């Protein structure tokens, strides 16, 4: 089946994206134009869109999360006014719609957009307005997409309670939840307990970047101390899955094979079992992980073993600009390099929709009304 599952077919499939950074998906042409407008100096001087796009990709391709994150300086710099935030948010929605995304959660850290005098509220309102404008334009063009935002607090900073309060205040105006991001090592999520307590007191949703650059203690804290609804990445849960004398982490390619041929040869530790038993959604981002060194390659990415073990796996882009990716590209890479088929793509899409921070009835409507029928039609195409 996967032989005819071409990039074009995949492009036409509905997709659900839970983990996409607004400041990680700015169009390179927009970075170039806005940087010139505000006088922000960019690291490449040839003045071409291609040169800048390549600079982001290559700089992010360092094997280090810290260096990957340094590139955000140049997108955050051009997202400091109402007009610019509106434009970036609107273009994000249009780009996602063009990629076949039908539901997305776009995250960003309001505290990073105050350099030119905006308040936190003004930042959120400008992004919201841009998202709504993008939805309207995409719908008018026949590509309807629902986009909600997640407000991120930076884990090295100290504003998480304020940002959590902001997320609760704007929950009925398009903000679906909260997130913690930034360099992981040395900044455990438990530093932000007050924020999580506030969210729980108000029955609000949150996810935490955990188990990306740092391993099991980070995942354990995110779930058992903080109470996260989902895990951003979570890929290092495989440190707690034994294979032979070692773990999946030691030989992920062998683990992917073993998960298909003999799943019982993979033995889950207590934490790995807890994550699977309680159906914790994993927001997995293969290309980003290869760039930051969290995974060796697409073929050997643990997403395949975790999918075969029936974890609640979702597929995401993380940062479309830095990781030079899209949902179509993530899906196509798994089909071409990791043996995924149409059933797998439908499954991760449905998993993501089930795990969205959107009211249950709205999730169900997208699953029943949009996702299932489109995948059923695609499946017929393979069996005429
Ligand atoms: O993969 C990631 N891991 C941790 N932090 C990230 C990742 N991608 C982006 N950000 C951080 O999240 C901020 C808000 O969107 C970005 O500015 C970046 O610093
Ligand atoms: Zn991320």
TrEMBL record:
<comment type="similarity">
    <text>Belongs to the metallo-dependent hydrolases superfamily. Adenosine and AMP deaminases family. Adenosine deaminase subfamily.</text>
</comment>
<dbReference type="InterPro" id="IPR032466">
    <property type="entry name" value="Metal_Hydrolase"/>
</dbReference>
<keyword id="KW-0862">Zinc</keyword>
<dbReference type="Pfam" id="PF00962">
    <property type="entry name" value="A_deaminase"/>
</dbReference>
<protein>
    <recommendedName>
        <fullName>Adenosine deaminase</fullName>
        <ecNumber>3.5.4.4</ecNumber>
    </recommendedName>
</protein>
<keyword id="KW-0546">Nucleotide metabolism</keyword>
<dbReference type="InterPro" id="IPR001365">
    <property type="entry name" value="A_deaminase_dom"/>
</dbReference>
<dbReference type="GO" id="GO:0005829">
    <property type="term" value="C:cytosol"/>
</dbReference>
<comment type="function">
    <text>Catalyzes the hydrolytic deamination of adenosine and 2-deoxyadenosine.</text>
</comment>
<dbReference type="GO" id="GO:0043103">
    <property type="term" value="P:hypoxanthine salvage"/>
</dbReference>
<dbReference type="InterPro" id="IPR006330">
    <property type="entry name" value="Ado/ade_deaminase"/>
</dbReference>
<keyword id="KW-0479">Metal-binding</keyword>
<feature type="domain" description="Adenosine deaminase">
    <location>
        <begin position="14"/>
        <end position="371"/>
    </location>
</feature>
<dbReference type="GO" id="GO:0009117">
    <property type="term" value="P:nucleotide metabolic process"/>
</dbReference>
<dbReference type="GO" id="GO:0046103">
    <property type="term" value="P:inosine biosynthetic process"/>
</dbReference>
<dbReference type="GO" id="GO:0046936">
    <property type="term" value="F:2'-deoxyadenosine deaminase activity"/>
</dbReference>
<feature type="active site" description="Proton donor">
    <location>
        <position position="212"/>
    </location>
</feature>
<dbReference type="InterPro" id="IPR028893">
    <property type="entry name" value="A_deaminase"/>
</dbReference>
<feature type="site" description="Important for catalytic activity">
    <location>
        <position position="233"/>
    </location>
</feature>
<feature type="binding site">
    <location>
        <position position="21"/>
    </location>
    <ligand>
        <name>Zn(2+)</name>
    </ligand>
</feature>
<feature type="binding site">
    <location>
        <position position="209"/>
    </location>
    <ligand>
        <name>Zn(2+)</name>
    </ligand>
</feature>
<feature type="binding site">
    <location>
        <position position="19"/>
    </location>
    <ligand>
        <name>Zn(2+)</name>
    </ligand>
</feature>
<dbReference type="GO" id="GO:0006154">
    <property type="term" value="P:adenosine catabolic process"/>
</dbReference>
<dbReference type="GO" id="GO:0004000">
    <property type="term" value="F:adenosine deaminase activity"/>
</dbReference>
<keyword id="KW-0378">Hydrolase</keyword>
<feature type="binding site">
    <location>
        <position position="318"/>
    </location>
    <ligand>
        <name>Zn(2+)</name>
    </ligand>
</feature>
<feature type="binding site">
    <location>
        <position position="21"/>
    </location>
    <ligand>
        <name>substrate</name>
    </ligand>
</feature>
<dbReference type="GO" id="GO:0009168">
    <property type="term" value="P:purine ribonucleoside monophosphate biosynthetic process"/>
</dbReference>
<dbReference type="GO" id="GO:0008270">
    <property type="term" value="F:zinc ion binding"/>
</dbReference>
<feature type="binding site">
    <location>
        <position position="23"/>
    </location>
    <ligand>
        <name>substrate</name>
    </ligand>
</feature>
<feature type="binding site">
    <location>
        <position position="182"/>
    </location>
    <ligand>
        <name>substrate</name>
    </ligand>
</feature>
């Amino acid at each position: 089946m996967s032989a005819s599952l071409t990039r074009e077919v995949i492009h036409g499939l509905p997709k659900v994206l839970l983990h996409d950074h607004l400041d990680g998906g700015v169009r390179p042409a927009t970075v170039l134009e806005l940087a010139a407008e505000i006088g922000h100096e960019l690291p490449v001087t040839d003045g071409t869109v291609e040169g800048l796009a390549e600079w982001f990709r290559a700089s992010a391709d360092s094997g280090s999360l810290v260096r990957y994150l340094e590139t955000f300086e140049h997108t955050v710099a051009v997202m400091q006014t109402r007009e610019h935030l509106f434009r970036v948010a609107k273009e994000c929605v249009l780009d996602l719609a063009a990629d076949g995304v039908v539901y997305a959660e776009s995250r960003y850290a309001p505290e990073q957009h105050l350099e030119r005098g905006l308040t936190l509220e003004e930042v959120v309102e400008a992004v919201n307005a841009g998202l709504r404008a993008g939805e309207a334009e995409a719908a008018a063009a026949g590509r309807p997409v629902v986009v909600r935002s997640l407000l991120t607090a930076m884990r090295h900073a100290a504003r998480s309670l304020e940002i959590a309060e902001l997320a609760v205040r704007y929950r009925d105006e398009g903000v679906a939840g909260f997130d913690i991001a930034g360099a992981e090592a040395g900044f455990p999520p438990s530093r932000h307990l007050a924020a999580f307590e506030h969210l729980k007191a108000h029955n609000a949703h949150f996810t935490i970047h955990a188990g990306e650059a740092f391993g099991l203690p980070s995942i354990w804290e995110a779930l058992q101390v903080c109470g996260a609804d989902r895990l951003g990445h979570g890929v290092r849960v495989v440190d707690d899955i034994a294979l032979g004398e070692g773990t999946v982490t030691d030989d992920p390619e062998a683990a992917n094979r073993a998960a298909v041929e003999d799943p019982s040869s993979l033995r889950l530790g207590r934490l790995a079992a807890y994550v699977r038993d309680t159906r914790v959604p994993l927001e997995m981002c293969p290309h980003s992980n290869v760039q930051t060194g969290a995974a060796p390659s697409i073929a050997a990415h643990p997403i395949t073993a975790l999918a075969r073990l029936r974890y609640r796996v979702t597929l995401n882009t993380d940062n479309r600009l830095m990781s030079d990716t899209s949902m179509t590209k993530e899906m196509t890479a798994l089909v071409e390099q990791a043996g995924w088929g149409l059933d797998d793509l439908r499954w991760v899409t449905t998993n993501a929709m089930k795990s969205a921070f959107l009211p249950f009835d709205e999730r169900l409507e997208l699953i029943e009304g949009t996702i299932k029928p489109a995948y059923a039609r695609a499946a017929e195409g393979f069996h005429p």
